[in-house]
């Protein structure tokens, strides 16, 4: 019973309950929303957002932010798409895409750690740069006529479940175990929780902050490959504005913008919620132009809630430290009296 109570107190559990509530409420309005087919489609549609949210979680845990994920997604998808269209192998396209994501992530990381540039400014600049590079590389044209074999990857099912969904969920679980059970995996949240304390403990802070941006870049590239496989073409605006949705998803899932708190499981659930909301609006016959307004409102509510929760946690921590100090002084007084 105690374990169950502990689980219910976690932000991830409340996020999952919110997800279930969305399906139940919308299902009462339109029963088709509760069909297994729609649930499966919602998961498929949210895959690239889950992958992006996982990468972003690493950065957020260290107390930084990555705005460039949409630009990396678009650039890596466009370059890999051109390779495939011109007869290159799928393996080569994957390697090149990952290389692009890792390189841009490395530049972001070095800019933040070595040049001491704000992560917001650094990644915002890289977002614009990657957008321009994508347009120049593709001559401002859409990348179309991708090989059928590549597009079919997104359609492969195993026991009735989409293969990419299985791979993404499996990867999500493995990353969660790494961040929570592995000593080095816990470095990321330790840095965001108390940077000075992490330095005193001997944690190579600059190295792991750089790692977080590289991981985010690689995840963005993988999301670009998923995007290309699912959609079948890459426009010059691929990934445009997606960073705001991903940030909202991560924070909704319990990842703090202040750093040190959160999990990839929560971020993944948050990503599914953001996509499910868009799907819910369609089933409820709400005009499409409300999507951005609702997403923006939700983002503001989430950020404000995160700030309030962080403030409450800080006050509680101060009370605990004060209580411990008072108890220690009382013990010293008793010992001195003896």
Automatic annotation (TrEMBL):
List where the protein spans the membrane: 12-34, 46-62, 67-84, 90-110, 157-179, 208-227, 289-309
Q: How does it assemble?
A: The complex is composed of two ATP-binding proteins (LsrA), two transmembrane proteins (LsrC and LsrD) and a solute-binding protein (LsrB).
Q: What does this protein do?
A: Part of the ABC transporter complex LsrABCD involved in autoinducer 2 (AI-2) import. Probably responsible for the translocation of the substrate across the membrane.
Note the superkingdom of the native organism: Bacteria
> What's the chief localization of this chain?
membrane
Alphabetic keyword roster: Cell inner membrane, Cell membrane, Membrane, Transmembrane, Transmembrane helix, Transport
Subcellular location field: Cell membrane
Q: How does it sit in the membrane?
A: Multi-pass membrane protein
Q: Any keyword Transmembrane?
A: yes
Name listed for the protein in its UniProt record = Autoinducer 2 import system permease protein LsrC
The UniProt entry, under InterPro entries, shows: ABC_transp_permease (IPR001851)
């Amino acid at each position: 019973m105690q374990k169950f109570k502990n689980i219910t107190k976690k932000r991830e559990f409340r996020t999952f309950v919110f997800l279930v509530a969305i399906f139940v409420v919308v299902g009462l309005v339109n029963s088709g929303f509760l069909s297994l087919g729609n649930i499966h489609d919602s998961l498929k549609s949210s895959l690239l957002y889950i992958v992006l949210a996982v990468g972003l979680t690493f950065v957020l845990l260290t107390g930084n932010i990555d705005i460039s994920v949409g630009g990396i997604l678009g650039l890596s998808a466009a370059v890999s798409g051109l390779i495939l269209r011109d007869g290159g192998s799928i393996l080569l396209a994957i390697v090149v895409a990952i290389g692009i994501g890792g390189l841009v992530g490395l530049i972001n990381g070095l800019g933040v750690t070595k040049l001491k540039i704000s992560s917001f400014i650094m990644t915002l600049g890289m977002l614009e740069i990657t957008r321009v590079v994508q347009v120049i590389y593709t001559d401002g044209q859409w990348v179309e006529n991708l090989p059928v074999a590549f597009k079919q990857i997104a359609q492969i099912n195993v026991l009735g479940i989409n293969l990419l969904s299985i791979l993404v969920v499996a990867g999500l679980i493995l990353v969660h175990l790494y961040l929570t059970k592995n000593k080095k995996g816990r470095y990321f949240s330790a840095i965001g929780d108390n940077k000075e304390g992490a330095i005193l403990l001997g944690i190579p802070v600059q190295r792991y902050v750089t790692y977080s941006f590289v991981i985010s870049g690689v995840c963005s590239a993988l999301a670009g490959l998923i995007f290309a496989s699912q959609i079948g073409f890459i426009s010059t605006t691929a990934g445009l504005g997606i960073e705001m949705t991903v940030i909202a998803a991560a924070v909704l899932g319990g990842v703090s913008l202040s750093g040190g708190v959160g999990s990839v499981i929560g971020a993944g659930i948050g990503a599914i919620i953001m996509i499910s909301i868009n799907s819910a609006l369609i089933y409820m016959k709400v005009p499409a132009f409300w999507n951005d307004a609702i997403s923006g409102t939700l983002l503001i509510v989430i950020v404000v809630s995160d700030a309030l929760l962080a403030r409450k946690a800080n006050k509680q921590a101060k009370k605990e430290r004060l209580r411990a100090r008072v108890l220690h002084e009382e013990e010293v007084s008793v010992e001195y009296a003896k």
